Structures are given as C-alpha cells and as structure tokens.
Amino acid sequence: MNHLAHTxxxxxxxxxQLGGLMGDFVHGTxxxxxxxxxxxxIRLHRAIDVYTDSHPExxxxxxxxxxxxxxxxxxxxxxxxxxxxxxxxxxxxxHRLDTYSAGVRDLLDxxxxxxxxxxxxxxxxxxxxxxxxxxxxxxxxxxxxxxISYRLRRANPVGEAMPILTGxxxxxxxxFEAFYPQLQDFARRWREVELPAR
Length: 198
Hints:
This protein is an all-alpha fold. It has one domain (3-194). 68% of the residues lie in helices and 0% in strands. The protein has helices spanning 3-9, 14-22, 36-53, 56-64, 73-87, 89-92, 97-110, 117-128, 138-151, 162-167, 169-194. Helix 2 crosses helix 3, helix 3 crosses helix 11 (169-194) and helix 4 (56-64) runs antiparallel to helix 11 (169-194).
C-alpha cells in the first residue's frame, strides 16, 4: 500500500500516521530515539506490507498484469490502490479528501526534524503535487509512476503502466474491493493488540 492507505490504516493517531509515512524511508531497526508511537507506526507499516504482499486477492490482481509489468506488480498495485482510495475517498474516510491530504502534509511539516532525508525530500514533492490526495487524478498518478520508473536502477516499464492499469480497471477494482476491507480489519486488530493502552 502507498502513503494514503498507510495513513488511513493508522487510524486517528498522528504518531502512528507519521510512522506509517516514514515506513518506506526507514530500513532496519528504527532509531530508538524516535517517539514510541512513531516506531509503532513503522512497525504497523511493515505489518501492512507483509499482509498485503501475501494476500490472495493481491496475488490475483498481480496475475492480471501482463509481462513485463507483473514483475513490478507490487509497486503498480500500491499506487493504483491509493488511486482507488483517493478517487472514492468518502467510502473509506469520514474526512474530505482535500482536507485530509492537507493534514498529512501539515503532519510532515510539524515533525520535519524527525523525518529521514528521503522523506524530507519527498515532502516537497508532496506539497508541489497536493499529495496524497492528488493520486485521485489519473494524470498525477501517471506522473508519479514515471518518476518511480526514473528512480529505479534498471530499465523498467513502470512509467508506461498507466494504460495497462486503466485497461484492467474493472477486474482490479473487484480485487481491491475484496481485499481492502480485510486489510482495514487487519490494521484495526493490529492496533488493538499491539497498542492496547493507546
């Protein structure tokens, strides 16, 4: 899952949300000097990724992608699922998308000193493109995929994936609809078990 999903799945706890946003930028053991809530958010991010990568519905969605896109299915589906969440945001959140998205960027601004360098740089991109809410717009998602393609070390088709994803919109939507409520339940249970006092 991508940035929008990770913040939503962290619930209303800002430190969990911040850790969820940091998850892709922190490798190995998190700095023990980070607030415990942020460390928990990084752990939740990783648990969500493991759950997602092993879920049968996600495997079926990945199998829909033709070669050579299937090899990058994890990246493509993470981005596409954020697009689906953003596009129908009232189904998944009580907040307005633009308000929620601005709140995510404000959260990063307020905790800039805690952000790893990669997320500090990405924060500027988020501000310029009104992310994560901007992922609702197909042209913004296409630009993001193009940027990811450029940053990957080897030649890849990620930047050319938008027509493939839109062509598979209906079956990918069906897989997402079956998967995401289960992921919401997983994240809620994780928070209840791992953070009983929060």
